[in-house]
Specification:
The chain is of the alpha+beta class. About 25% of the residues lie in helices and about 35% in strands. The longest helix is centred in the last third of the chain and has 19 residues. The protein starts with 11 loop residues before the first strand and ends in a 14-residue tail after the last helix. The relative contact order is 0.14. The C terminus is likely disordered.
Length: about 260
């Protein structure tokens, strides 16, 4: 499950309004209006990016590097991804906190679950790897894990703002901007987005923390979640019907009994 830095220093792109030329020799017309370009891990752009990926305006020049890790839980992802950029460890700790256990109705996990349209407890178990992944998923990347974390570190000058309103993006996800109050977790220019793939088979969570972007992609495994939820429910029912659960309450337990 080792992380790696994707190649691409020889890639380039040139943007002229709605037109994009790439190093592959292709010319594309996109619903965008921006000028600039990218050469390897450096880019300078100004304007409105492809609106299919949300409403994004940027005017900046920046250099960036990427790292990728795989695993079967967010804990494994955080352990396997590696990045030498200064500030990464601090940003990673903040990402861990954001995706940790819920801290109340206004916590990041609750809002992300609402954006994804699933229960908060299901999302917690999914990210913690507390589900039985189907064999079909495990065979896709043997030994790597079914979840992926892509981290992008960027440095540069400029401004950028983005809003995602739930329509299908160029990768098939219906991303929504997750409202977050200003805090030390997400600095100026930070963001939190979450969305479900149109196929219903995976989810994506994007955290912008400091000058890092954490992009988590995870199979939804809806059948596994429902099966595990049923198991938990049955376990609770069995516990409730056990002799210990049906025993008379002790004095001071605060339970009011019915008439004899």
């Amino acid at each position: 499950m080792a992380a790696n830095c994707p190649p691409g220093w020889s890639d380039w792109a040139l943007h002229l309004g709605p037109f994009s030329y790439t190093s592959g020799g292709s010319l594309e017309t996109k619903p965008q209006f921006k000028f600039g370009g990218q050469m390897g891990k450096f880019k300078a752009e100004a304007g409105v990016s492809d609106v299919r990926d949300g409403l994004k305006f940027e005017m900046r020049a920046q250099a960036f590097v990427e790292a990728v890790g795989h695993g079967n839980s967010t804990a494994e992802l955080h352990e396997n991804v590696q990045c030498d950029t200064p500030g990464f460890k601090e940003a990673l700790e903040k990402a861990k906190t954001l995706l940790g256990k819920t801290g109340g109705p206004g916590s990041a996990m609750v809002r992300i679950a609402q954006a994804l349209g699933i229960e908060t407890r299901q999302l917690e178990r999914l990210l913690a790897g507390e589900v039985s992944w189907p064999e079909s998923l495990q065979s896709v990347k043997p030994g790597d894990g079914v979840m992926e974390l892509r981290v992008k570190a960027h440095t540069g000058l400029g401004v950028s703002s983005q809003v995602c309103l739930g329509w299908c993006d160029t990768k098939g996800y219906r991303m929504m901007g997750v409202g977050m109050e200003a805090s030390a977790m997400i600095t100026s220019g930070g963001h939190v987005f979450a969305g479900k793939h149109t196929s219903g088979e995976s989810i994506r969570i994007i955290l912008g923390i400091m000058n890092f972007t954490f992009e988590y992609t995870c199979p939804l495994a809806q059948d596994a979640l429902e099966a595990n939820a049923a198991t938990l429910t049955n376990s609770a029912d069995d516990a409730g019907s056990s002799p210990a659960a049906t025993a008379s309450p002790t004095a001071g337990a605060g339970v009011v009994g019915g008439p004899g």
